[in-house]
Amino acid sequence: CCPQLEGLCSFLKLSTCPEHLLVCFCSWLLALTPDLSYTSAAILAEQLFLRRVLSLTQPPSRHLMAALASFCSKYSQPFCRVLVAAVLREPGEGAEQTKLVCELVEECLEPNCVRLVLSQVLEVPLSEKLLPVVQAVLGRQVRGPPLPPQEVLPPDLFDLLVLTLCRQAPVFATSLNYAKLVTAVLTMYQSQVS
Prior knowledge:
Distance between the termini: 51 Å
CATH class of the domain at 3-109: Mainly Alpha
Low-confidence stretches: 144-150
Helix content: 55-70%
Strand content: under 5%
Structural class: mainly alpha
Number of strands: 0
Mean pLDDT: 86
Shape: elongated
Radius of gyration: 18 Å
Order of helices and strands: HHHHHHHHH
CATH topology of the domain at 3-109: Serine Threonine Protein Phosphatase 5, Tetratricopeptide repeat
């Protein structure tokens, strides 16, 4: 039950436990059978990681990155819905948080969750802070061998991306990151862009 799980997390002080123990705890979570429910995984993502990630002022420790990667490997949907969404909505620069999301997109998340991150980005007003996240999503599209069908952006999400970039062009008239992003879209999807 949600209230009991939140109470247990609070009792165990999971949001402030040492990061090396966080890695052990995540390994233990992955070994549980049956798998956690979506709701339970979302509560744990919030309790284990949200405060830590939102308070980052320097790159995350290797222990925190290991715990995040471990949790993402099995529960990436609830993780994205809770943690990535909170980072995207957070006002201000959030440079470390943005770098972290980019690293997760590039290294840890499954293709369907990469698309989920892009759709979450496109739900909020586009900002300079979010441009590297979109770039990371597109970077995921060009790495390695020819794309398997599940990695290609679906037409509706691609159309929304292009529409958002077009509408935001005046705001980013002097942005180098925006120029790189538009160039990447035009290069990767030249046959679909008119």
